[in-house]
Amino acid sequence: MEGGLGVIDLKTQSEALLLKQLMKLLNKEDIAWVALVWESYYKASSLPSMAKKGSFCWKDILKLLDKFKGRARAKINNPKSCLLWSDTWNDKVPMIAYLELYSFTKSRNTILAEAKTSDNILNLFHLPLSLSASFWTVNPFTA
Fold this sequence. Notes:
Blueprint: H1 10-26, H2 32-41, H3 56-62, H4 65-71, H5 94-97, H6 99-102, H7 112-116, H8 131-135
């Protein structure tokens, strides 16, 4: 049943608007509030999914992060804003696609940029790796 303004489901519409704000933040759009949030809460190489901090209002928006990531398809323009294991990139969620390799990781919150610039990719993992896990360390960014 429609409300007085023709809005069918106000909760869904509100959630969609909050998801839109989250998209602006994660894409680091050139907007003053986006720069302020990144500078205030996430400057020390952490991401919103790693540190859910901020005002009570912002924390409410971050509760939708998993829902957003479940529907979003990432196009990596900035590897500093993508988690290596839990974000979807290269059309895969690496912790699911490479489950055995993921089981050897030292940090579940590694940022993609850190992994790509690592001097030795094996430093990201507890060693020794199993034979099938070590197969993916050759070049996991193109596999």
